[in-house]
Design goal:
This protein has helices at 18-29, 43-50, 57-72, 89-101, 112-122, 129-134, 136-143, 154-161, 182-194, 223-233, 287-295; strands at residues 5-7, 35-37, 76-78, 107-110, 126-128, 147-151, 170-174, 207-213, 236-243, 255-259, 263-266, 279-284, 305-311. The protein is α/β, with parallel strands linked by helices.
């Protein structure tokens, strides 16, 4: 699944098609993206000083809007734990290779020359901007790497969640069958440990919301367990327990996991164990679908009927 990308600055050089590049970047921005900075070398300033300064005003303005949106949505991530000095786009490729190796990013977009040079080394993790522009289906293929099949164990889930959970300050779990039990407890512990715990940054307090369905046959004994998690990780927890909508066609059924930067629909429950062979498929939600599901559970105007709320 493509979620975190590095774009090398040379894709903005004169030989590339500015209009199509801006279009593709706007398309990328609707998906989760972290543009990285290394050793105090600023990606956006590098591009602006070397390339964007020569843009026609209409392209320059679009790029400025793009950078502002990246900053506003907290999608510019700074990583300084590599001793590589950056003076060229080839240096950015070398940095990106290191980032790929630790799963910080999962794709690099560069120009034809660098792509050809590193094609064998990077395999499908690197593509040229011009090939993407010329062949629309290639960009669709990159964008559509959107599902991952995982085994429901901590050892399988942790590397996957580590792609985005450390960068998250808010987590929403939507699961009508989410209950206090050992299996769900394991998943909550894993998320709590990973959240707000980015490399070389101190842990930050985060917010975790759980939306589940009311069932009189189950004891939703969340309070004691979540109080323990709060004391350990300093996150805040809110549990919303809902009835189905009074509108017959709206049933609380599907499962989702959503952070401020990414969202997934989840094919099976959030229970994880130490040993399992059960598979679950996590499918990426586009921005519009993610927003729709969040909106369904707005306390001031929800789609469903709120029965109770637990805050820890």
């Amino acid at each position: 699944m493509t979620s975190n990308l590095v774009l090398t600055p040379n894709i903005f050089q004169e030989g590339n098609n500015k209009q199509n590049i801006i279009s593709i970047l706007k398309d990328i921005i609707s998906n989760p993206i972290f543009i990285t900075e290394y050793q105090n070398t600023n990606w956006s300033k590098t591009i602006q000083s070397k390339y964007v300064s020569s843009f026609e005003p209409k392209y320059k303005d679009k790029f400025q809007v793009l950078i502002r949106k990246l900053k506003d949505e907290k999608k510019l991530i700074k990583q300084t734990n590599y001793d590589i000095l950056i003076n060229s786009s080839e240096d950015w490729i070398n940095v990106s290779k290191k980032a790929l190796s630790i799963n910080l990013i999962d794709f690099i977009i560069t120009d034809d020359e660098l792509n050809d040079k590193y094609k064998i080394d990077l395999n499908e993790d690197c593509e040229s901007i011009n090939n993407i522009i010329i062949d629309d289906t290639k960009w669709d293929t990159i964008k559509n790497k959107r599902s991952s099949t995982l085994i429901k164990t901590e050892s399988s889930m942790e590397p996957f969640l580590s792609h985005f959970m450390p960068y998250s300050s808010k987590l929403i779990i939507i699961d009508p069958y989410f209950q206090y039990q050992t299996k769900n407890e394991n998943f909550l512990k894993l998320c709590s440990r990973l959240m707000g715990n980015r490399t070389n940054f101190s842990n930050s307090s985060c917010k975790i919301e759980i939306h589940t369905r009311f069932d009189s046959n189950h004891n939703y004994n969340f309070q004691t367990f979540l109080t323990g998690l709060k004391s350990q990780f300093n996150h805040t927890f809110t549990i919303y327990i809902w009835d189905d909508s009074t509108i017959q066609s709206h049933k609380f059924h599907d499962r989702f996991l959503i952070t401020e930067s990414i969202g997934f629909s989840v094919s099976h429950s959030f229970d994880i164990t130490y040993v399992s062979n059960q598979e679950t498929t996590w499918s990426f939600l586009d921005k519009e679908t993610k927003s729709k599901h969040i909106y369904n559970f707005q306390e001031q105007d929800p789609l469903f009927v709120l029965k109770s709320k637990i805050e820890v």
